[in-house]
Write a structure and sequence with these properties.
Blueprint lengths: L1 H11 L16 H10 L5 H15 L14 H11 L1 H8 L14 H14 L5 H7 L2 H9 L7 H9 L10 H9 L7 H16 L7 H13 L3
């Protein structure tokens, strides 16, 4: 099964020169958080629109540059609190998606609650996130309604620079099932992809779990 995945990837993608898209170079942690939470179970274009609208209204650079300054989690929280969650969702980012169709909360509210977890733990920037995130903070994050699976947190890690984490969303899991991995869970999916990458990296420079995750996700998202 693993060998078939490796063959498929090598035959269909230029693994030696595959570049990740711009969202992997967001200018600040709040933009990474918006993308991570709003992308779950949604068409990705709607997520891009959320980030674009927020940046337009706040005159923020979307992607890192030599002159970009960190927009902090505290500034983000203050803005949503001042605006109000409902108004933030309806009038600023124009997205009222919920974390679940049954008893879910607004994703805008989930983003705010996740931001507050980071603020309580002195995480304000991408650098803070990468230095300070630990198991206790992860547990707090997963207590926010709709985040218990940890999928948005895995994706957030990837957006913040983690090259070794997989986002086991529906596209990734469906891909693995198609290659014979029935009944797997998120932990097994991570392990499988680490093994695939270990074999690929012997032949292709710059290959890592994050890059293979995106290649598979992009391929599957165009099919479903």
């Amino acid at each position: 099964m693993k060998e078939e995945i490796i063959k498929f990837l090598e035959e269909n993608f230029n693994l030696d020169n595959y570049e990740l898209p711009d969202e992997y170079s967001y200018s600040c942690l709040p933009l990474c958080l918006l993308d991570a939470v709003f992308s779950i179970g949604a068409n990705y274009k709607s997520t891009q629109n959320v980030v674009d609208r927020f940046c337009d209204i706040n005159n923020l650079e979307i992607f890192k540059s030599d002159t970009s300054e960190d927009y902090t989690i505290k500034e983000f929280i203050d803005y949503i609190d001042k605006t109000g969650v409902k108004s933030f969702a309806e009038n600023v980012i124009k997205n009222t998606q919920r974390t679940s169709s049954t008893n879910g909360i607004l994703k805008a509210e989930a983003v705010l609650e996740c931001a507050k977890v980071f603020d309580r733990n002195s995480i304000q920037t991408i650098n803070d996130f990468n230095k300070l995130l630990n198991n206790d903070i992860e547990k707090e994050y997963k207590k926010v309604k709709g985040q218990s699976s940890g999928i948005s947190l895995s994706y957030l890690k990837m957006l913040c620079g983690d090259e070794n984490t997989l986002k086991p969303d529906r596209h990734i899991m469906r891909f693995l099932v198609e290659f014979g991995y029935e009944g797997i869970d998120c932990i097994n999916a991570q392990s499988i992809m680490e093994s695939v990458v270990a074999d690929l990296s012997a032949k292709h420079d710059g290959i890592n779990v994050r890059k293979i995750d995106y290649i598979i996700w992009n391929y599957m998202s165009k099919r479903y």
